UniProtKB/TrEMBL annotation:
<keyword id="KW-0677">Repeat</keyword>
<dbReference type="InterPro" id="IPR036322">
    <property type="entry name" value="WD40_repeat_dom_sf"/>
</dbReference>
<protein>
    <submittedName>
        <fullName>Protein JINGUBANG-like</fullName>
    </submittedName>
</protein>
<dbReference type="InterPro" id="IPR020472">
    <property type="entry name" value="WD40_PAC1"/>
</dbReference>
<feature type="repeat" description="WD">
    <location>
        <begin position="268"/>
        <end position="298"/>
    </location>
</feature>
<dbReference type="Pfam" id="PF00400">
    <property type="entry name" value="WD40"/>
</dbReference>
<keyword id="KW-0853">WD repeat</keyword>
<feature type="repeat" description="WD">
    <location>
        <begin position="226"/>
        <end position="267"/>
    </location>
</feature>
<dbReference type="InterPro" id="IPR045182">
    <property type="entry name" value="JINGUBANG-like"/>
</dbReference>
<dbReference type="InterPro" id="IPR015943">
    <property type="entry name" value="WD40/YVTN_repeat-like_dom_sf"/>
</dbReference>
<dbReference type="InterPro" id="IPR001680">
    <property type="entry name" value="WD40_rpt"/>
</dbReference>
<feature type="repeat" description="WD">
    <location>
        <begin position="359"/>
        <end position="388"/>
    </location>
</feature>
């Protein structure tokens, strides 16, 4: 049984074929045909304002993961079938204007703060820290924003900016050309950022190039040093405790970098297709999601005199591509978004992770995920952002609001704690969410973590 919130601006899906059957739902909206997001998660061989929101009165999701039909490994499972949202006869819809007054008052805790826009291409990546917002686009520019105004910016010599992460005073950017560039804020009056290096370093690349044993075959009649990504860097994640940077690429590999000396420690042939997402977890675990439809868990362990990442478990294997991964702040749950519009999740158990079920809230592919406290944000090709709240254990999640207003697919999300004076005076924990879109805009939202969400009784129709 599923209760799904109604969104204010739903796209009308049409069937469009793709080269790969498992990504058919990505192009269901004809308004996005001119965007390159459709091939984003397909294969490393192919290239990939008005605002409002609808607040539901508690779309509480429940799943029984122990049943045969709810298992993600069952090929006949509804979790692995395309577009289950639009075919479900059990869609429960609510109109905001019909909500009780107290619920309308609660809806005011979720609102649009502002929008950022520059005519320089689609927004592919976001990162927020210390009151600064970094936005990357296909123009090769990285813009830096503060208090909804442009603060500074910097530009790389080549490559779309597909991923951004921040570690201390360093900013790491992953690019379409397979390079990872490292930047630092100079601290001068102009607030400029200076490029301080790239990964792999020139020295490391030259040293590895000397020995033929350091080459790996990436395509027919083409070998490259194992320390270098030969295709787009699609995702980045930082292990702050161990000082490690993880990079995933369309070349199907996961690479591990030591931040202190910029050395590549390991290259893992992680998947059979493009690595679309990587997320550092707990207890030394790292999670990867791929266009091959799998989610894998890795752990760094001592192997002889060195350490290597070993595969702990393949957590999910399905026909639909995995597009995004995120781990909750407390390490209690892992979420994975897919091209079929579902968000699968696992909860932390005594020994490892226990499959919890799926969150249904989108009509098209889920393209990005983010977390803030007990809240989970999912952005989709259907131009909406669902905000879910984890209600303790047992796999229960409430959809507390659905943001609409973007005119294109929501490509990336970033969330940080609201440190404004207004938030400090409030008794509720509030978060600032940034949503980057292929309409070249970034919208800024304020969300209250403890907003009221009541359960709704719903009977399954015959």
């Amino acid at each position: 049984m599923t209760i799904v919130p109604k969104t204010a601006a739903a796209a009308s899906p049409e069937s469009t074929s793709l080269r790969r059957r498992k990504l058919g739902v990505l192009l269901a909206d004809p308004s996005t045909q001119d965007s390159d997001y459709s091939d984003e998660y397909c294969s490393p061989r192919h290239r990939y304002s008005d605002a409002s929101f609808t607040t539901t009165s508690a779309a509480v999701y429940y799943s029984n993961p122990s049943s045969a039909t709810s298992s993600p490994y069952n090929p006949m499972s509804p979790w692995t079938q395309p577009s289950p949202y639009t075919k479900s006869p059990w869609i429960h819809q609510l109109v905001a204007s019909s909500m009780p007054d107290e619920e309308n008052a609660a809806a005011n805790n979720h609102r649009l703060i502002g929008s950022l826009y520059r005519e320089e291409g689609h927004v592919y990546s976001l990162a927020a820290a210390g009151g600064l917002l970094y936005t990357g686009s296909d123009s090769k520019n990285v813009r830096v924003w503060k208090n909804l105004e442009e603060f500074s910016g910097f530009k790389s010599s080549s490559g779309f900016v597909k991923a951004i992460v921040i570690f201390g005073n360093r900013i790491f950017t992953g690019h379409q050309d397979g390079k990872i560039r490292v930047w630092k804020l100079s601290g001068d009056k102009k607030n400029t950022h200076k490029r301080v290096g790239s990964l792999p370093t020139t020295r490391d690349l030259l040293m590895k190039s000397i020995n033929p044993k350091n080459y790996v075959e990436v395509r027919r009649h083409r070998n490259v040093p194992w320390v270098k990504h030969y295709d787009a860097v699609s995702c980045l994640s930082v292990d702050t405790d161990r000082g490690l940077l993880y990079s995933g690429s369309w070349d199907k590999t996961l690479k591990v970098w030591r931040i202190s000396d910029s050395k590549c420690l390991e290259s893992i042939a992680a998947h059979d297709d493009a690595v679309n997402s990587v997320a550092v977890g707990f207890d030394g675990l790292v999670f990867t999601g791929s266009a091959d439809g799998t989610v894998k868990a890795w752990r760094r362990e001592l192997m002889g005199r060195s350490t290597q990442h070993v595969l702990v478990e393949t957590m999910l294997s399905q026909d639909h591509a995995l597009t995004s991964l995120v781990v909750s702040h407390a390490g209690e749950a892992v979420y994975a978004g897919a091209s079929d519009g579902l968000v699968s999740f696992w909860e932390r158990g005594k020994h490892f992770m226990t499959y919890g079920g799926v969150l249904r809230g989108h009509k098209l592919a889920v393209l990005c995920l983010a977390v803030g406290g007990s809240l989970v944000f999912s952005g989709s090709a259907d131009k909406t952002i669902c905000v879910w709240r984890r209600e303790g254990g047992g796999g229960l999640h409430s959809c507390v609001t659905v943001f609409t207003g973007h005119t294109g697919p929501v490509k990336c999300l970033a969330v940080e704690r609201d440190s404004s004076a207004e938030a400090e005076e409030s008794d509720e924990t509030q978060w600032i969410a940034y949503s980057g879109c292929l309409d070249s805009s970034v919208k800024v939202w304020r969300v209250s973590e403890s907003a009221k969400a009541e359960s709704v009784e719903h009977e399954e129709e015959e």
